[in-house]
UniProtKB/TrEMBL annotation:
Its cofactor is Zn(2+); Fe cation. Residues 345-403 form the Purple acid phosphatase C-terminal domain. It catalyses: a phosphate monoester + H2O = an alcohol + phosphate. One of its GO terms (molecular function) is metal ion binding. Keywords: Glycoprotein, Hydrolase, Signal, Zinc. Belongs to the metallophosphoesterase superfamily. Purple acid phosphatase family. It comes from Perilla frutescens var. hirtella (Perilla citriodora). InterPro entries: Calcineurin-like_PHP (IPR004843), Metallo-depent_PP-like (IPR029052), MPP_PAP (IPR041792), PAPs-like (IPR039331), PAPs_C (IPR025733), PAPs_N (IPR015914), Purple_acid_Pase-like_N (IPR008963). Residues 1-21 form the signal peptide. Its EC number is 3.1.3.2. This is Purple acid phosphatase.
Length: 434
């Protein structure tokens, strides 16, 4: 029934999508201002959650007090905490800035599709989180290059209206750009959403914040946004994977080594060797720099990573690749090696969350044959995976603060086609290469 509804919606919206070509984009919006407010030094703030292995969640938050405990109390009824978990904490310095105490605590095992109430550090407000379902359908919200502008606020408001289970962010989170207190303001901005549903992120160029001889790369990002890299056998927080409700998701790093001799490439091969397309028929990949991009911005920046990793992902039968970096939206056909391929992946660029740098408004002409839809507007995406073979993708443009569905597509998993059987030998050969 849900699949029939999705198909009907696709047909009904096709005409509306075609009518948006002459859309006039509103002007950029300013950075948000965050008035200073004094809080108790042990009160948790910047609370966000992420998946941390089967039936587990990681709760992360910040306190001003260095003595606050890294404990999370939780249960299935309000103010009645049947369980508690003790975690770890860290902090960092960056020039004259010193972070608060950053807490990371894993809770579980948790029941699927269940509402939990929790409290961080033994005091402060109560939060709620909803665990993901154990089987289809499942819905992902997707938005990259968020920042903290008026458009960011609009995008977050639209995402909040979506009944999603997991948010995926392909890089460029806070746009702190060396000014560390912007990490704090961004954490407060996204807390209402990020404390209620898991946010799974990977790094972009604005997370690097590297200063030669003075500051290491990704210090702030790695300290604040710990992802399940250890749980997925990775040696780095910059690349990892997770599984949820029949979907295997691989988060790659565009700004760490990715050639065939790199740790990331070796890990990717090991991770793909464990993928079971019976248990997880959908295979998704996220990273920051797009490999297929017909916008004039950031042309060819992803070519080296594409040359190194695309053959491996193609052999594995990846269904969908999501990236950011280009501040606009674009959806491809199934594509491989620069041209349409029925066994290739659909590539979607969605670096249009609301950043302060504005939109990338110019596209190359003529439009490449692999490019299906493109538009320079702020917005977010929603991916509803209905069952093991079909999913419904939609992109929602911000139009004067109203979420307008401007593009949509019915996607079919490669696990339900002959592509995987044809590429099985190719994948086994690549996985065995030294």
């Amino acid at each position: 029934m849900e699949l029939k509804v999705a198909l009907l919606t696709l047909v009904l919206c096709a005409a509306a999508a075609a009518a948006t070509a002459d859309y006039v984009r509103p002007p950029p919006r300013a950075m948000l201002s965050f008035p200073w407010s004094k809080k108790d030094s042990s009160e948790p703030e910047q609370v966000h959650i992420s998946l941390a292995g089967e039936k587990h969640m990681r709760i992360s938050w910040v306190t001003s007090s260095k003595h606050s405990p890294s404990i999370v109390e939780y249960g299935t009824s309000s103010r009645n905490y049947s369980f508690s978990s003790q975690g770890e904490s860290t902090s960092y310095s960056y020039f004259l800035y010193s972070s608060g105490k950053i807490h990371h605590t894993v809770i579980g095992p948790l029941e699927h599709n269940t509402l939990y109430y929790y409290r961080c550090g033994g005091e402060g407000p109560e939060f709620q989180l909803k665990t993901s379902p154990s089987k289809f359908p499942i819905t992902f919200a997707v938005a990259g290059d968020l920042g903290q502008t008026g458009w960011t606020k609009s995008t977050l408001g639209h995402i909040d209206q979506c009944k999603y289970d997991v948010h995926m962010l392909p890089g460029d989170l806070s746009y702190a750009d060396y000014i560390q207190h912007r990490w704090d303001t961004w954490g407060k901005l996204v807390q209402p959403l990020a404390s209620a549903r898991p946010w799974m992120v990977t790094q972009g160029n604005h997370e690097k914040e590297y200063i030669p001889l003075l500051e290491d790369s990704f210090k702030s990002y790695n300290s604040r946004w710990k992802m399940p890299y250890e749980e997925s056998g990775s040696s780095s927080n910059l690349f990892y994977s997770f599984e949820v409700a029949g979907v295997h998701v691989i988060m790659l790093g565009s700004y760490t080594d990715y050639d065939k001799s790199s740790d990331q490439y070796s890990w990717l091969k090991a991770d793909l060797s464990k993928v079971d397309r019976v248990r997880t028929p959908w295979l998704l990949v996220l990273f920051h720099i797009p490999w297929y991009n017909s916008n004039t911005a950031h042309q060819c920046e992803g070519d080296d990573m594409k040359a190194a990793m695309e053959p491996l992902l193609h052999a594995a039968g990846v269904d969908l690749v999501l990236s950011g970096h280009v501040h606009a939206y674009e959806r491809s056909r199934r594509v491989y090696n620069g041209k349409s391929d029925p066994c290739g992946a659909v590539h979607i660029t969605i670096g249009d969350g609301g950043n302060r740098e504005g939109l990338a408004k110019e596209y190359m002409e003529p439009q490449p044959e692999w490019s299906m839809f493109r538009e320079a507007s702020f917005g977010h995406g929603e991916l509803m995976i209905v069952n093991s073979t079909h999913a419904f993708w939609s992109w929602h443009r911000n139009d004067d603060d109203q979420a307008v569905r401007s593009d949509q597509a019915l996607l079919t998993s490669l696990s339900g086609t002959g592509c995987l059987a044809e590429k099985g030998h190719e994948l086994r050969k690549m996985l065995l290469e030294p």
